[in-house]
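sorry for the late reply, my laptop died twice this morning and i had to redo everyting from scratch. anyway the thing you sent over, i finally got around to it. pasting the sequence first so we're on the same page, its 505 residues, then the predicted structure underneath. double check i copied it right bc i was rushing
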Amino acid sequence: MECFEISFESKTVLIITTSVLLFFVTAYVIYQRFFHPLANYPGPFLASLTNGWKGYYIYKLSLHEQLLKAHIEYGPVVRVGPKDLHLWNADAIAPIYKSGRKMAKTEFYDGFTAFRPNLFGGRDEDIHSLRRRQLSHGFSQASIWNMESLIDDQMKILIDKLKRLAEKQGVFDLKRLIAFYVFDILGDVAFGRSFNAQISEVAPEIPAINDHILLSCLLGTFPFRSFFKRIIPMLPIPWLRHLMESRGKLKETCADCVRNKRQQPSTSRSYLMQHLVDAKDPETDAKLTDEEVNSEAWAMLIAGSHSTSGTLSLLFWHLIHNDQALQRVDKEIQDNLGDLPGDSISYPIQGLESSLSYTAACIQESFRISPTFTMCLWRRVLNPGGVDIGGCHIPQNTNLAISNYALHHNPKIWGADTKEFTPERFLGADGKVLANNLIHFSVGHRMCIGRHLAMMNIWKTLTTLVNKFEFHLVSAERRVRVESSGIGEMEGPFLCTVKLKGSDM
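ok and here's the structure:
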């Protein structure tokens, strides 16, 4: 009888507990679907209840694709989280990203912090303004152009490697070659030393960067970030622990680069870390602390190579798959720049963009059709009265974002052929490049500070390799997919053969 009474009491407790939980879950669902300030905005059912919808597709490297599908199904404003709205119209860009302190960065960015919050991840606007002032000179166009010889050094290694591949007529992965090349440029430009990835063909940091971005976007999507950072190493989830281990290895690499350069005497050779060490606030003469230098160097290590190498690979993919566009780029280079002299490694950066309008349109179209930066840059509405965007009233404390991928495939902006590589859409009747709604480097006061370095790399690499080589496809595949947790790359390898122009081989 006693055992029966214990069992009966246990069942009673279980029933009551289940009933209470069911009541709260039901009440939560009813509130989110019918009474929440965002209840009238359409979107996936699960997304209105939990950020797990976003987290799942971040893990699957396809959130950008799901956001585009959601807009096609639900319209220009989609609810993608309990407090989150995603937009894809151009008239939403300025209110979200050019409103300064009226639109604050959300806790999403806390997931990216490894040392201290840096220029990308920091949410304090005063600190951001100070850091921007301290770093503005080092990342200015003039300063970046002074580092052009560093790109040429790595370009020569890449050219020599392609010449050897041309002699052997072997199949190779162009995406892999570009990744090593850009990573070595990052080492030279950021830290004053190459990572020698082109020579060794080994760079464990590259997949580790992918792991870090995935981990950061997942941590940023869910609450209790600090707690999860501490307990992940203890969880019996191998892939999650692997992501943390990758971040740890990258931190060691970054700290080692900073430590080595601090121990070496200054040189006349320009590189970004020296600018970090020397950077001063123009108003107060304040310098960065050691931890702040590490934090900003970390940002360069993570973002400095990944988005550029991914962009270059996709740009070459689109051109090689579009013979007419590639031939027109080649002719424009020949007509305006001529062949490179035998003793020149690459075309000088100054004047490239202004003299090659069709090539510029191809670069813009590649940014549009397959952006590598697909991350949702979340902002929170701070105005107590909310904000009106595109005829919609959005209440205070709502999180807003625009993903490049969704914006760049909006048929109301670009036409019905958004899946087609059509550089002409960026050219006016006079042949000049048109102003456009691309936000591949973001906009406003949080615009990517490394954009001058990225564009110099893209322009020099594209023009030089198109002038010197012919690339031929191995696969007949006509479509390319970007897989991305936030900063992405082409899915799978990019198999090619190469021929040196003017050669009979």
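The chain is about 50% helix and 10% strand.
thats about all i looked at so far, will dig more tmrw
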